[in-house]
Every structure is written in C-alpha cells, then in structure tokens.
Amino acid sequence: METGANNRNFIRILEILGEKTNSVLSEIGGIFLLFLKSFYYTFQKPFRVGLFLKQIEFIGVQSSFIVTLTGIFTGMVFALQGAHAFKLFGAENLTGPSVGLSLARELGPVLTSLMVTGRAGSAMAAELGTMRVTEQIDALYAMAINPVQYLVVPRMLAALLMLPLLTALFNFLGIIGAYLLGVHVLGLNPESFINDVIYLVDFKDLFVGLVKSIFFGMIISIVSCYKGFYATGGAKGVGRAATEAVVISSVSILVSDYFLTAMMF
Is residue 159 a part of any domain in this protein? Predict the structure, then answer.
C-alpha cells in the first residue's frame, strides 16, 4: 500500500514538472513567434509612422524623468561607495573611471531597462490586455487590420530606438552625479576626475552598453506585447499579464546581460 502511494506521488510530481516545463516552453515559443511576425511585418506596408512616433513619445520621452532621477543618484551612490573603498588603498583618483566603466558596461543599460520595464512594459501589457479582453483586437481582424503590425511593431521599433538613447542619458547623468559628489562633497580633484574618465572609459565600453540596451529593448517590447496580446480572464487577467510582463522581462534582462557580457568581453 505504502509503495503504491509513493509511486503515485512520484508520478504526480513528474506530471507537475512536465506541465510546468511544457508551459514554459510554450511561452518561449510564443514569444519567439511573435518576434518573428513583428520582424516580418516591420518591412510590410502600410508603415505606421504616426503610431511609431506616438510610442517614441510614450516609451522614450515619458521615461526620461525616471531615467534622469535614477541615473543621477546611481552615479552619486556609486561614487560615494567607490571613493571610500579606494581611499583604503590611496587610489581615490580611480573613483571617476570606476563609475564610468560600471555605468557604461553594466549599470546604465541594465538599470535603464529595468526602469523602462516597470513604467512602459507594464503599461504596454495592460493596454494590449485590455484590448484583448474587450475584443478590440478581434475588431481589428474584422476590419482587415493586422493587429501585430498595428500594435506590436510600432512598440518594438520605438523600444529598439529609445532604449539606447535613454541609456546614453543615464550614463551621462550618472557621470555628472558622480562628479558633483566626488568634487564638491568628497574633495576630489576635478581635472583628474575628468581626465581619468576620458582616458580609461573608451568607445568600446560605451558601444557594448548601447548594444546591450538594444537587446533589452527588444526583450521588453516583445515580452510585454506578448503577455498583453494573449491575455485572458477579464480584468484579473489583465493585471496578471502586466505583472508577468514585468517579472519575465526583468529576469530575462538580467540573464541575457550575463551572456552578452560573456560574449563581448
């Protein structure tokens, strides 16, 4: 009797693992298929320039304040911590370059993408999810309008364009924040700070961060649109889609950041 119960429990565990694995693989496959469709319809007429510009304003311009705030304080905090650490070794002059390298390679693209995910990614998922549960997407099919081309492509292209620009803004303001705190609060030499940053942070470091941000923009837009596009279950389902879009996008950004860093350095 006990052996039979143990076998049933073991089989049930395998069934649960199988269901979870199948669900995850289905999600990955669905996201990849949506990306392929979006890529294909990017080059098909009609070109939705107005919708593209609207998404640029939504994803880029409206995210600039939170990116500005995050960038300045990230640079200041990192300069504060770095200066205290380098002071132990008498190398306070390395504070500027260390902040610049960290922002350009990792903190800039990653934190910018996470901020955009929380602000714009969740909104994209909620908006498309609302359109799905209220049958507005079905209405687009009825009007012979391809919903992927109409809804997903403008958001994907806008994210691909604006994430590098927002990352560049984050990096610049992070350096400004580090400079203000390092020079005016910690008493670092201003000329040495600027010269060391220019000398040690080269174009490759900036380029790698911008390339990462392009990949992160694609992840944010495709994952968020996928979760909203296929949302079910009414208002509760829309909320669930927005939450899952933020979680999956954030985790995917952190995981992909490792592999991108491993390939580029």
Answer: yes
